[in-house]
Design brief:
Layout lengths: L2 E4 L4 H14 L28 E7 L11 E7 L14 E7 L7 H20 L11 E6 L7 E9 L7 E12 L6 E8 L7 H10 L16 E4 L4 E6 L2 E4 L1
Antiparallel strand pairs: 1-11, 2-3, 3-4, 4-8, 5-6, 6-7, 7-8, 9-10, 10-11
Amino acid sequence: MAHVLEGANRPAYRIALLVLLSWTFACEARPPKQPDSAASGPSIRWPIPTGWKHETFVLPPEFAPDFPYHGTEDLRFMPGFNSPTAPDYWSYDFIWWVVEPPPFDPTSLAAALTTYFRGLATAVGGSKYNLDPARFRAVLTSVPASEPPRVTGQVFTYDPFVTGLPIILNVEAELRSCPGTRQVAIVVALSPKDTADSVWKALRATIGSLDCTAAALSVAEPGRLGDLNGLGLVLIPTQEGSIVA
């Protein structure tokens, strides 16, 4: 039976959440392609590696309304992201495309990551798992004399999709300007693997493939999701809101 989700401003969050939930149930990936919108103007190029999945959604996400940046998020997930036994479990890259240059220091970025992961874990796993609010935090340090500016450290969160267990993500982040555009990019790589592990070679290579030398500001738009295999859910935006069938 279909349920109408009230509020025309909710589809983007629903899309993001349903996409993330789809990982848990091992949905069949859509054929890799460049996103139609959201930080994917005709001059932005961020190739999608073979076998990786990708998604894009609006910032701040509804699961973290206090998130400090406005723009879009573009994600690249390694093939084994949702498999606890895979070597690339929970390993992925993302970019926060923002209009205004944000503060980029360990304290500010740690606060943003804490808000983001607390909201994500609570929205997805809060009703299924016993999540300790005190666990959510990020500990970051600046990389001296780095250009572009870089920070590294760890995020302490949970896997709310599959296990409900605590997870520590190693983080490498940098702030990139995009000449000739109205955007800056906070580029982030995360994995529970040690940064010397071979997984990081793939993460860094994907980050390194980003070309944002001349792009137009764009906005993520909700689209239709196909059947999420295990759940049998379909999200169809309507003028009144969204229908989950």
